[in-house]
UniProtKB/TrEMBL annotation:
Protein source organism: Zea mays (Maize)
Domain Glycosyl transferase CAP10: residue ranges: 50-179
SMART domains: CAP10 (SM00672)
Name of the protein described by the UniProt record: Downstream target of AGL15 2
Pfam families, A to Z: Glyco_transf_90
Length: 181
C-alpha cells in the first residue's frame, strides 16, 4: 500500500525510535520538503519519546491526486496513504500542515522568528483602531475554485473591496495516481 503512494511522493519520512530518516524520490517544489521535515524534527525534539514510529509518504505540491472515486469497494484496500498540503472533497490525500511559515525564501517568506519581529514592530507603529481595514492574501489561486473566486475580490478600476490579493506564480505538472489494477 505504501509503495502506491511512491508514484507521486516527493519523499518518505520514517520515524523510528525517536529518530527521523528521509528517503528522497524526486526534487521537491522549491524548499517545501525542508520545512516539512524541519517541522517533524521540531516535533521530535519538543516531545521526546512521545512520537510513535511512523512510515509516511509526502508529496510537496498543492494539488491532490488520490481520486476518491477510484478507491471504492474492493479497491478501498488499495488506497495509497499520501500526505500533502491541500485536499478537497473529491480526493483522499491526507492533509498535512504546510510549515513554510517557518520560512520560504523562494516566495520571500522570512523565517518565523524574523517575521514575528517584523509583525511586532508593525503592530507598534499603528494603533489597531487607527489601521486601514484591508484584507491581505498571498497564495496560489490555481489550487482550488475558492481561491480563483477570491482573486475576483482584488482592487480593480471599478471596485475596491479593501482586499489586496497577490497571486504567486508557480509552475507545475499535473500527476495523478492511476487506478488500482
Amino acid at each position: 500500500m505504501l509503495d502506491r503512494a511512491r508514484l507521486t511522493a516527493t519523499f518518505r519520512l520514517v520515524v523510528l525510535g525517536g529518530n527521523a530518516y528521509v528517503q528522497r524520490f524526486r526534487p521537491a517544489f522549491q524548499t517545501r520538503d525542508l520545512f516539512t521535515i524541519w517541522g517533524v524534527l521540531q516535533l521530535l525534539r519538543r516531545h521526546p519519546g512521545r512520537v510513535p514510529d511512523l512510515d509516511l509518504m509526502f508529496d510537496t505540491v498543492d494539488w491532490p491526486v488520490v481520486r476518491s472515486h477510484l478507491y471504492r469497494g474492493k479497491n478501498a484496500e488499495m488506497l495509497p496513504p499520501l500526505f500533502r498540503y491541500c485536499g478537497d472533497d473529491k480526493t483522499l490525500d491526507i492533509v498535512f500542515p504546510d510549515w513554510s511559515f517557518w520560512g520560504w525564501p523562494e516566495i520571500n517568506i522570512k523565517p518565523w522568528d524574523a517575521l514575528k519581529e517584523d509583525l511586532k514592530a508593525g503592530n507598534n507603529r499603528v494603533r489597531w483602531m487607527d489601521r486601514e481595514p484591508y484584507a491581505y492574501w498571498k497564495g496560489n489561486p490555481s489550487v482550488s475554485g475558492t481561491r480563483k473566486e477570491l482573486v475576483k475580490c482584488n482592487v480593480s478600476s471599478t471596485h475596491d473591496w479593501n482586499a489586496r490579493i497577490y497571486a504567486q506564480v508557480t509552475y507545475f505538472c499535473s500527476l495523478f495516481i492511476p487506478s488500482p489494477q
